[in-house]
Amino acid sequence: MAVKIRLMRIGKTKQPSYRVVVKEARTPRSGKYIEQLGFYNPLTEPADVRLDEERIKYWLGVGAQPTERVRTLISKNTSIEVK
Prior knowledge:
With 83 residues, the chain is an alpha+beta fold. The chain is 23% helix and 40% strand. The chain has two helices and five strands. Strands 4-3-2-1-5 form a five-stranded mixed sheet. The protein is globular. The chain starts with a strand and ends in a 6-residue tail after the last helix. 19% of the residues are buried.
């Protein structure tokens, strides 16, 4: 089972916000997720990003692969270095 850390879109039309979640790689973007790791709202100034560093470290340690956007969010907003 390949696991990814990715963004799941929530919010109203033209007002997107996102959950940072752990999902199986083949599930749809808005499908079930294993665990929620944080929140990202790009519409606020500055963007509102809340991430659970402890759980992100755990999931990266067991082999979860973050998407490019999530990798950028983790690098800019936490002390975790993602390869």
